Fold this sequence. Notes:
There is one protein chain. The chain has 14 helices and 16 strands. By secondary structure, it is of the alpha/beta class. The protein has three domains: 5-62; 82-249, Rossmann fold (3-Layer(aba) Sandwich), CATH 3.40.50; 280-396. The two termini are 42 Å apart. The mean pLDDT is 89.
Amino acid sequence: MSIDKSVLAELLSPLIDEKLRSALREIRAGATDLKALDMLRCEMKAELAAAIVEMAKSRIRAQAKMSAPFAENLFSDREGLEMASGAACAAYHAQRLIDVGVRSVIDTSCGIGLDAIAFASAGMKVFAYERDPVRAAFAARNALSAGVSDRVTVICADSREAEWPKGDAVWMDPMRRSDSQRWQSDPELLSPPLSEANRAFQQGFKHVLAKLPTGIDQHKLSGYAGETTFVSEQGECKEAVFMVSDTVKESVNAVILTNGAKLSSFDESDLTIGDMSAAYLYEPDPAVIRAGLVDRVTKLVAGWRIDARSPYILSDAGAFSPFADVYHVIEQGAYHPKALSRTLRERGIGKVILKKRGFDRDIEDVRREMRLSGDKTAIVALTTVGVSKRYFLLERMDSRL
């Protein structure tokens, strides 16, 4: 749901703060949207009541992306929050610019302003463009709440039609979904297209960064002279970031924010396929998989791949890696639903954590087929080797380094 422009001034008024906090408390206590709306409609017009409920729900969702104190005061709508960078990713973007000496940055589509705030918090001067007047107002208010409004200038305009001020760098966060809300995989179907990043660099900006969807087609990135980094946090690949600058070379990288580890395509390795017999199974971090760097991790853990289509790695070494989760292999074999269920029951396993890579069946369908009994919990990884489906019964070892 978008927030009606006609109620923007009232929504930003300090007089609405208590109504907003009251709606937040009611929703947290279990009130439905309809009940929360009914409570507000008796005091104000319907459009403002709807905007307050939408804002309250956005603040609840925001706590998954940022610290609770900031989330409690965030101005956002649902889509604006979905498209915004989380706190850890925004801090990573800012650090990349700080590392190359950036002092001022043009944010070409700032949305609700979370990247702009991260840049300003790191000491940079930010010129933030946003063509949607509601989100532009939200970005300005969020910068004020974060205490960086003196370093963030929000400009309500389409950056593609504006004359930009001078700056060291450009940050682009293009629209990454199609009209049908599907994520785009072609860099030229983004809005604006990725070629704008190269154009900005050619116009004299020293460093240009653009956020990309994680499902971007890497084959279509080969024509762009820049570095692509897939970024993960807490075991989830959050984004890809393209950078063109004299300080980087054309490459593909994986960065894991949880432990600070980085892997690069400069460290090339050949694909090694081995047999199924091994003591340990490694599951590479999603950013490593997206970046196509599984073979590099395979080499680091002295292992081999199960199949070229599966990212699972086997090894007898059992060494920990910052780039993969490691499991002890208890048992492995050909996947047959009834036989696997029987094996698990015989081991007293009544609950399974199912994982799959390169396995074409739905996890919940597999789970429903199982008839388990017992008080033990186990991990089962499912994959495909050649034309055969296989399972691995696993025990997780300690967390990554």
